[in-house]
Design brief:
Elements (H helix, E strand, L loop, with lengths): L1 E7 L1 H5 L3 H11 L2 E8 L3 H7 L9 H7 L5 E8 L2 H9 L12 H5 L8 E3 L3 H11 L13 H5 L3
Antiparallel strand pairs: 1-3, 1-4, 2-3
The protein binds inosine-5'-diphosphate.
GO biological process, one term: UTP biosynthetic process
Pfam family, one: NDK
Cofactor: Mg(2+)
Length: 151
C-alpha cells in the first residue's frame, strides 16, 4: 500500500466543491488516512513548489495558494500515487480529460483544483511537509476485501 498527498487548493475551497472532490476519492475506494484544513505560508510553498522557482509564475502560484485555507489529505491504497494523478488529470484544466477532476471542474492552468504527489519520492517528502506522524491514521477499512479481492 502507498500513501499520497493531495491538497484541495483555494479554487476548490472557494467554489464549494471540496465535498464533491473528496467524494470522488471515497467512491473510487481510496482510504482517507489524514485530513485537515490549514493556511499555507510563503515559506512552506517555496519549498513545495521549489521545482518551479525559476518560472515567471512562481510568485503568483504561491499567492494563489494563500487566498484561503486549503485542505490537505493523506490518501492510501494500492498504486494510489499513480491512481490519484490519473483521477486529477493533466495540469491545464482545459486540456484535462473529461471525467478527471481537473477536466470536470477547471478551465485554468493555475486554478486547477487539486495538487497530487507525482512520485513515491515526492509523496514521502510532501506527507512529511504537511503532516506530523500522529496525524496519519492506521485503521482498517472494512471494504478492503471488496475493493481489491486478490490483487
Ligand atoms: P502539477 O500540479 O500538475 O503536478 P506542476 O508542473 O508541478 O504541475 O505545477 C504546479 C502547479 O503550478 C500547477 O498545478 C498549477 O497550479 C501551477 N502552474 C503550472 N504551470 C503553470 C503555468 O504555466 N502558469 C500558471 N500556473 C502554472
Amino acid at each position: 500500500m502507498e500513501i499520497t498527498l493531495v491538497i484541495l487548493k483555494p479554487s476548490a475551497v472557494q467554489r464549494g466543491i471540496m465535498g464533491e472532490v473528496i467524494s470522488r476519492f471515497e467512491k473510487k475506494g481510496i482510504q482517507i488516512v489524514g485530513m485537515k484544513m490549514v493556511e499555507l505560508t510563503d515559506e512552506i510553498l517555496s519549498e513545495h513548489y521549489s521545482h518551479l522557482a525559476e518560472k515567471s509564475f512562481f510568485g503568483r502560484i504561491k499567492d494563489a495558494m494563500r487566498v484561503s485555507p486549503v485542505v490537505v489529505m493523506a490518501l492510501k491504497g494500492l498504486d494510489v500515487i499513480n491512481v490519484v494523478r490519473k483521477l486529477a488529470g493533466v495540469t491545464n484544466g482545459r486540456d484535462a480529460q473529461p471525467g478527471t477532476i481537473r477536466g470536470d471542474y477547471s478551465m485554468s492552468v493555475q486554478e486547477n483544483i487539486i495538487h497530487a504527489s507525482d512520485s513515491p519520492q515526492s509523496a514521502e517528502a510532501e506527507l512529511k511537509r504537511f503532516f506530523s506522524e500522529n496525524e496519519i491514521f492506521n485503521y482498517s477499512h472494512h471494504l478492503l476485501p471488496y475493493l481489491y479481492a486478490n490483487d
